[in-house]
Design a protein that fits this description.
By secondary structure, the protein is of the alpha+beta class. Helix content is about 50%, strand content about 15%. The two termini are about 35 Å apart.
C-alpha cells in the first residue's frame, strides 16, 4: 500500500492538532515511515518514497538534515504547544504531539489499515468479483456514497453508508434526469473533464451536491465514471487519492463484466495461437490469414509474455487481463497460452510507440503482481513465433537473473541466454580456456588473484594504468602479475579471437559460480 501526503494529513488531523502544512499534495507514492535520529544516513534508501518523522526541538535539525530532508517524500515534524516549527524545503506537516514515536506509531497504523483494505480489493479482483463488492469493501473508508455511472449517467451499481440516500433521486430515470443531462451537456467544464485521467470535481452546481469523479476509458473514450458523493463526511483531497486507488481495481471488475456479457470477437487470436502451437504450419498460409485480418506482412510487431506470480493461476482473472490489454491498446491481441498470457502488438497500427507502450504497462504490471518479458521489435510474419520465444526467454532467464525485477527485455538477457545454451551439453569447465583453469588452480593453491586481475585487465581493454588503479596496486606490481598470467595462459594476449575466448570463459565460469 502506497500512501499520499493528502491521505496522511486527513487521518493524522483526526488524532493530532495540525499546526502547519506545506505542499502535502506534492507527496505521492509513499511506501513507509522512518524515525529521524541524531544522524540518519538517508543515502542508503530512496528518500523521495519515505516519510520522516522528526522532532523540531532537535538541536541543529535544519543544518543536519538540510540536504537529505529536501529530498524527502514527506516530513512530519512534532512540536510541543507554544513551540515554533522549522521551515523546510520538502513537503511537510507540523503536528502537536508528545513525541515523534507516538506519531510514527499512528502513521504505521494508517499504513496497516489501508493495506488491509487494498488486500480485500485485490482478493475480489483475483476471484473475478463484481464492482459492487469492491464498493461494499470501500464504503467504510470513504464514509460517503460510492457509485458507478455509465456514459448515459445511469447508475450501474452503488453502495451507501445508509440504506437510503437522497443522491439516488438525482440519477433516477425520468424527465428530471433528461433535464439534468441537458444541463450537464451545456457545462463546458464538465465536457472537458470527460477526457481527464485524474480525479476531478463533478458539476456540483447542477446536481446539488459535491462529488469526485474518476473516469474509466474504453477505446480511448470515457465509458464509466467512479464517483464518491459528499453526503456524510466532507470530501477532502485525500478522498481524491483514495478514489483513484479504488478505481484501478474497479475497472478490472467492469472489464470482466463486459467480457462475460459478450463473446470475444477477436479473429486474430486463433491465427496467432495456431502459429505458436503448430511448428509445421506453412508460413505463407499463416501470413495469408493475418493479411486478410489487416495485420500486413510489412507491419512491425512486438511480443509480450506475462507470467502470473504469487497467485494461483486458476483464480487470477486471465481473461480480464486480456480484455484490459485489448481495451487499452486497440492494436494488441492478448490471449492465454501454455499457462502464460501472450500479447502481440501491431506497432504499425498503434498510435503509441514501443517505448510509450512499455511505459504505460510498467505500473499495471507492478500493481497486478505480474512479471513480463518483451521481445525485440521485428517486421513481418515470419518471426512471430520466434518473437514469442524471445519474450518467453526474457521472462524465464530474467526472472532467474533479476528475481526482483517486474519487466525483462530480451536484449538485456541475451548474453546470459547464450551462455546458458553453451553449457547445455558440456559443463563450463570443459568449454573454458585451459589457461583460465590454470589461473583458477593457482589462485586456490597459492592465494593469488590471477583470475580477478585478468578479468579487470580485459574489462579495461588491456590498459595497464587503469587496471592497476582499479586493483589499488602499483603499476610495477601489476606488470609482474600480468607476466605470470601470460605464462600460465601460454598467451601474449594479442590475438583478438583468443581474447574474446578468454572473456567468454570468464563469464561462463562466473555464471557457474
Amino acid at each position: 500500500m502506497r500512501l499520499t501526503g493528502n491521505i496522511l494529513l486527513q487521518y493524522l488531523s483526526e488524532k493530532f492538532p495540525v499546526r502547519e502544512t506545506g505542499r502535502p499534495e506534492e507527496s505521492r507514492e509513499l511506501k513507509g515511515a522512518l524515525l529521524c535520529h541524531a544522524s540518519p544516513d538517508l543515502r542508503e534508501i530512496r528518500p523521495e518514497e519515505w516519510i520522516y518523522v522528526a522532532e523540531t526541538d532537535t538541536a541543529g535539525l535544519s543544518a543536519v538534515y538540510e540536504e537529505d530532508l529536501a529530498k524527502a517524500g514527506l516530513l512530519i515534524l512534532t512540536v510541543s504547544p507554544g513551540k515554533q516549527g522549522l521551515p523546510v524545503n520538502a513537503p511537510y506537516i507540523v503536528l502537536e504531539a508528545d513525541s515523534p514515536g507516538t506519531v510514527l506509531n499512528e502513521v504505521n497504523k494508517i499504513f496497516a489499515d489501508l493495506r488491509s483494505w487494498e488486500e480485500r480489493l485485490l482478493d475480489i479482483q483475483y476471484r473475478m468479483g463484481s464492482a459492487r463488492e469492491m464498493l461494499e469493501a470501500s464504503v467504510a473508508i470513504f464514509e460517503n456514497p460510492l457509485f458507478v455511472l455509465d456514459d448515459t449517467f445511469s447508475v450501474l451499481t452503488s453502495v451507501s453508508p445508509e440504506n437510503s440516500s437522497s443522491w439516488q433521486d438525482v440519477f433516477a430515470p425520468g424527465r428530471e434526469k433528461m433535464d439534468l443531462l441537458r444541463s450537464i451537456a451545456r457545462d463546458p467544464r464538465f465536457i472537458e473533464s470527460r477526457n481527464r485521467k485524474d480525479v476531478y470535481p463533478g458539476p456540483d452546481a447542477i446536481i446539488g451536491f459535491r462529488t469526485f469523479h474518476w473516469n474509466v476509458f474504453r477505446g480511448g473514450k470515457t465509458r464509466y465514471s467512479l464517483v464518491v458523493a459528499e453526503e456524510g463526511r466532507r470530501l477532502t483531497p485525500s478522498d481524491a487519492d483514495l478514489l483513484e486507488l479504488l478505481g484501478t481495481h474497479v475497472k478490472f471488475a467492469l472489464f470482466h463484466q463486459e467480457r462475460t456479457d459478450e463473446e470475444r470477437s477477436s479473429k486474430i487470436e486463433p491465427v496467432l495461437t495456431r502459429i505458436l502451437e503448430d511448428r509445421m504450419l506453412d508460413y505463407q498460409e499463416g501470413s495469408h490469414m493475418l493479411e486478410n485480418l489487416g495485420w500486413k506482412s510489412e507491419h512491425s510487431y512486438l511480443a509480450l509474455v506475462y507470467q502470473l506470480t504469487y497467485l494461483d493461476q486458476e483464480v487470477l482473472p486471465v481473461l480480464s487481463i486480456c480484455r484490459y490489454m485489448q481495451e487499452q491498446f486497440p492494436s494488441c491481441c492478448s490471449f492465454p497460452f501454455e499457462g502464460d498470457i501472450v500479447s502481440f502488438f501491431n506497432l504499425s497500427l498503434s498510435v503509441l510507440s514501443e517505448e510509450e507502450i512499455q511505459m504505460q504497462l510498467k505500473p499495471f504490471i507492478r500493481d497486478s503482481y505480474l512479471k513480463a518479458g518483451f521481445s525485440r521489435t521485428m517486421a513481418g510474419h515470419m518471426d512471430l513465433r520466434r518473437q514469442y520465444v524471445q519474450a518467453k526467454t526474457a521472462l524465464d532467464v530474467g526472472s532467474r537473473k533479476y528475481p526482483y525485477q517486474w519487466i525483462n527485455y530480451f536484449d538485456q538477457i541475451a548474453f546470459t541466454y547464450i551462455l546458458e545454451q553453451a553449457v547445455r551439453r558440456l559443463p563450463a569447465r570443459m568449454l573454458a580456456h585451459e589457461g583460465v583453469l590454470r589461473l583458477q588452480d593457482s589462485d586456490r593453491k597459492h592465494g593469488t588473484e590471477y583470475v580477478k586481475t585478468l578479468q579487470c585487465y580485459l574489462d579495461h581493454h588491456q590498459n595497464a594504468v587503469q587496471t592497476a588503479k582499479e586493483l589499488f596496486i602499483h603499476r610495477s606490481t601489476f606488470l609482474y602479475r600480468l607476466e605470470k598470467i601470460r605464462e600460465l595462459l601460454e598467451s601474449s594476449l594479442e590475438d583478438p579471437e583468443e581474447v574474446l575466448y578468454l572473456m567468454i570463459s570468464l563469464s561462463l565460469l562466473d555464471q557457474k559460480g
